[in-house]
Structures are given as structure tokens and as C-alpha cells.
Amino acid sequence: MQKKYAFALAALFVAITSLNVFAGSSSECFSWYTVPTKDEIRPTSFEARDIVEKYNCIYLGCADKKKIYLTFDAGYENGNVEKILDALKKHDVKGAFFVLPHFIKQNPQLINRMTDEGHLVCNHTTSHRDMSKITSPEQFEKELSEIESIFREQTGKEMSKFYRPPEGRFSQENLKTAKDLGYTTVFWSLAYADWDNNKQMDPEKAKQLILSRVHNGCVMLLHPTSSTNAAILDDLISQLKERGYEFCTLDEFER
Fold it and tell me: Is 223 a catalytic residue?
């Protein structure tokens, strides 16, 4: 009897330990990154790629098609977001704008312009916090639903069901919860240091850097507050089209 009891306790301990290991792995925090390439070669190194693919996240499109997906993280307006929209309109190119509540409330005309001109307005969360530290599904949902309500009140429309975690911070648990809420999590395969308005790269250098790193299925992340991006986007789109690239939206995404 004692041996049976000891065996049962041992089995229970193993089961609980296994559950704890699984729970720990599902809540492990990751920071999305890509290793930069050149000569239009597709990147191959990504953080937690197997987990990201498990939940059908967007980060890199089809290898056989010269398609680019323009995405922008917009927290505020400083005059450059409007210039970005002007360049997109000139070339009839659509993008996806991941916005914050402040941007929606302070720039209703730009938000309406984005939707009117066919861009996707997407979810960048309510508080722009490290989402990987949220373990409560209810709190995670609140981060997405509150900004949805703000967007709905402002436009009378529903926000596009694409979500980008601030700073690319995530956990497997986050990805699962987002998917359960009907969202597709969006990362990127090309980005550069464009977010600091006090340290803007020389426009020509930035343009050549992007032209070298662009690739088939490129999910490009740009910050529309960047004065450099506002200065180069017009010519950048022209040169990429000349190279045979097609600009597509996230709802046209091909793996």
C-alpha cells in the first residue's frame, strides 16, 4: 500500500512539474528581431519563429513574389504623418497604420483620411505597454478592446483585426489570446532606426539602406513621424516599383 501511495505521489509530482514547465514556456517573454540583410536577400533569423508560425502571425510573405507590405506605427502626429499619406496617395499605395488612442483622439481628420483612402487602421494597444508581461487574458483583451471602442466612437467603423505588440514584445500566451480574439499578430521583416526624431538618419543613406534590405514578401515597418521617411517615401516607392515590386495590404497577405 505504501509503495502504491508513493508511486501515485511521484506520478502526481511529475504531472504538476510538467504543467509548470508548460506554463512557464507559454509565458516566456520574447523580443522580436530580424538580422539585417543586403542585396535584397530575405532574412532568415527571427525570434521564436516556430511559435510565431504556430499562431499564423505575419512577418514575412511569399518568397516567390515581389510583394511589399507597408506598415506604420503611429503614436502621434508631428506633421510627417500627413506627408506620408500624401506620398501614398500619389502612388495609389495602401498601407497599414498601427495607432494608439492619443493619435485617434488628437487627429480625427487623419484617421478618417486613412480609412477613406483605403488604408488599414490597426491595433497598437491602448497603453503601449510591454504586452509580454500581461498573463491575464482579460487584461490582454482590455488592451485591445478599449482602443477599438475609441476608434469606433470616432469613425463609426470597426478597427481592422491586425495587432502589433509594442516594441515587438510578446509571449506564446499573448499570441494565442490575440488569435482567440480574432486578431492576427503582425511583426516585420525589415525595419531600421527611424523612431528617434532627434537622431534621424541622412535621407539618402536611409533610402539606400532600405533599397538594399528590401526583399520578396517584405513586411516593412516604418514610423510615419520620421522626417527622413517623410522625405524619402515618394522616391522610395517609385524606385521599388521600377524594380518590379508590388505594394499590397495585410488583408491580401500571401505566405
Answer: yes
Q: In this predicted model, what pLDDT tens digit does every residue of 71-96 receive, in sequence order? A: 999 999 999 999 999 999 999 999 99
Q: Which of 39, 92, 223, 235 is catalytic?
A: 223
Q: What CATH number labels 41-252?
A: 3.20.20.370
Residue 73 a catalytic site member: yes
Per-domain boundaries in the chain = 41-252
Catalytic entry in 73, 119, 124, 194:
73
User: From start to end of the chain, where are the E strands?
Assistant: 30-31, 67-74, 96-99, 120-123, 162-163, 169-170, 184-185, 218-222, 246-248
Q: Which amino acid is at 114?
A: M
Whole-angstrom CA distances from 219 to 156, 174, 189, 229 are 29, 21, 5, 16
pLDDT tens sequence across 201-254: 999 999 999 999 999 999 999 999 999 999 999 999 999 999 999 999 999 999
